[in-house]
Amino acid sequence: MLHRKIWVKRPGASATLVKIKEDDLVDDLRDMILQKYANSLGRSFDSPDITLKIVTLKDQHQREERVMGPDEQICRTLDTAYPEGQTIHEALLIDVPHRRTPKPSPRAHMPYYPEETRPYESGTDYFPQMPINQPSPAGSTNHSHESRTSQVNHAHHTSHHSISVLQTGQIPPLPSPGGTRRTHHNRPGRPGYARTHTSSPTTAANPPTIAAIAGNPALRTSRPRLDSSASDAKHTVSSTTIQPLPTPPLATTAEGAVPPTSVPTTPRVSSPGPRKKKLNPKRITTRSPSPDVKPTLSILDTSVPPINVLIVEDNQINLKLLEQFIRRLKVRWQTAVNGREAVTKWRQGGFHLVLMDIQLPIMSGLEATKEIRRLERVNNIGIFSSASSEAPTLAGSRLLAPQDVDGKEVGSDAEVDEEKEKEEDKLGDQRRLFKSPVIIVALTASNLQVDRHEALAAGCNDFLTKPVNFVWFERKVKEWGCMQALIDFDGWRKWKDYAALQQADANATNAGSGPGRKNMQDKKDKAKKAAANKKDLDRLRRGARETSTSGGTGSGSSGSTGTGTESEGTGIGMDDAMGNKENKG
Amino acid sequence: MARPSDPVDDRSDAGSVLDTDIIDTTTFEQILEMDDDEDEREFSKSIVYDFFTQAEGTFEKMDKFLEQKNLAELSSLGHFLKGSSATLGLAKVKDSCEKIQHYGAKKDASGTTDEPDDEVSLDRLKKIIAQAKAEFKDAEKILRRFYHDE
């Protein structure tokens, strides 16, 4: 068998010799070419993909290109075309479909008809399997220029659905005459509806509508997660823009954005371990807020939101101190001395934050928390804002009926008459006062993880370790308060205006002393006070020394005096609250 | 807590110079900060004196329940007094009260292991309540001196 070498080349590239047998067909040559172009073609093409063209010069100026059929005998064709033998300039042209990466269809500038994905009724095998992902016209607008160009070159066969070529692995070797979409599209008598309408992935991927979510409480849990991640992103954006610019005006704009987003994150990170604190030699200096906290506090100083706090504490000493704390923050508050009273007070409505001691007489803090959460469930607080609608519609109550059942299952007296219990649990006219689930911060005396987990499991959102540190207390009230204020944005705005008025009044009465001077005065007062405290503490210490010689036995095991707080999670209330906010907006 | 710190530090940091565990100054100072007037010290004084009353009453109750061998009530009282003593920074009293709470709950001092024998628990309670009383007296002395009331 005789071998022969023939020139081939890719358009615009240099020619190369391929060895073939005397009686090889074009089809065989394609195999050889793939071997030769193992990298550039062999990796992504099969031999049937390749089209070979023979170029002949009819006369001095006219070149004629002809696509060679797969069943042509190469040697015979070449001998006919080039009687004097093939030169390098007469190399066969290797043509391959040149769009290998999915791109918008070059014809996508045409009106978008999903019906186009229908196969030809004539059943030609040009496009046997039609693409599922029809490129949308919107995606191709950027390429409109390109596609127009390719429309000009319409005769070129690759201008047909390149995607379909990709998927079928076939390309028509020749432009198909009269096979354009347009003619097909206008064909009369075709079926009026197309199957892509139902199976279109875009339709399926459509997000469920708000109504669907609101109507289906089961979906509710997944939504806030999306929402919170979105706000996280917002937070990073805002913090990156704010931090490098420490000017006061920007700081004030931050006060709206920072608190709610920092709520889920900060308590986790910055919890001073009480034990560590105890060992710290400079206790007093560490007690003042750490540098990263300070700006936040100073930003927030003027903006404790107008929340209503319920303090639940049975020990009068502690209660007295907490009252003093809260008085300083200038927010409204009430107290309760046991769990039962706490639930009763909560039912009056209007509370944003509950500071709940865990160990309480009559009804423990955990029981009270569970009861509040149960009542919130039964009354659908925070599920969607019906705060504006006076009474839930009949359809609404029917829709939420399963949850009532759930609520009762949790409750201890699940077996009692349902109707009666429902009446008892109803919050009635006060319903509008419950804009969102209340935030419950547990006050735990122990540092045991178990207790904390128990508190969170009962439905607390956060906790403070006793003895409660004022700095942490303030921070918790502000953080959670800001979040609740955001949920009740209208109320917050009113308060803002009111606060501004108050401020203006104060300035007016303080004739001559602007806010700057007032701050200075405040600082002076503080410094004076600190000095006085120090003096007194010195006295206290001296006294202690005298006594310690008699009675001090210096035990080193007092490491459990926790003054810090830790937060491990922000329970359900958060999610619900975010969801509620979303619905409101 | 005795720390051989240099004199400068000694003067500037009141917290480090309190040589006993009787009063945790960090916590106590926070209550002092709540005073509107540092000469009168109305608020902190009232809270401290309320505590004296509360503690005395609680110790009385403890004695009663000791007699009755009511461990559960003792535990509850221990917890109760722990809360307020911790708030004031009376660290020693607080620690002892925590032990009262644990012993009353029929556990060991740290509250981790169960103590099957009630008599053992009662015996421990007697000792720890006596200790707590003594510690309270120490703290009371210091605090009364602090408020110029002796």
TrEMBL record, chain A:
Q: Which PROSITE patterns match?
A: RESPONSE_REGULATORY
Report biased composition (Basic and acidic residues) as residue ranges. 533-545
Which residues fall in a compositionally biased region of kind Polar residues?
Answer: 131-142, 161-170, 228-243
Segments carrying the region annotation (Disordered) are 98-297, 406-427, 507-585
Q: Cite the Response regulatory domain residue spans from the record.
A: 308-481
What CDD domains does this protein map onto?
REC_hyHK_CKI1_RcsC-like (cd17546)
Bias regions of kind Acidic residues — which residues?
Answer: 412-422
Which keywords has UniProt assigned to this entry? Phosphoprotein, Two-component regulatory system
Q: Which InterPro entries match?
A: CheY-like_superfamily (IPR011006), Sig_transdc_resp-reg_receiver (IPR001789)
- Residues where 4-aspartylphosphate occurs? 357
Which residue windows does the record flag with biased composition (Basic residues)?
A: 274-285
Low complexity: which segments have biased composition? 198-218, 250-273
Bias kind Gly residues: ranges: 551-562
The terms under GO molecular function for this entry are: phosphorelay response regulator activity
Identify its protein family: Belongs to the SSK1 family.
Q: Which PANTHER family match?
A: HYBRID SIGNAL TRANSDUCTION HISTIDINE KINASE J
Q: What is this protein called?
A: CheY-like protein
UniProtKB/TrEMBL annotation, chain B:
Q: Offer an example of a GO molecular function term for this protein.
A: histidine phosphotransfer kinase activity
Residue list for modification Phosphohistidine: 79
Q: Which SUPFAM superfamilies match?
A: Histidine-containing phosphotransfer domain, HPT domain
- Pfam families per UniProt: Hpt
**Presence of keyword Protein transport:** no
Report the record's Gene Ontology biological process terms: phosphorelay signal transduction system
Query: What domain of life does the UniProt record list for this protein's source?
Result: Eukaryota
Q: Where is the HPt domain?
A: 40-146
Name of the protein = Histidine containing phosphotransmitter protein
Source organism per entry reads Aulographum hederae CBS 113979
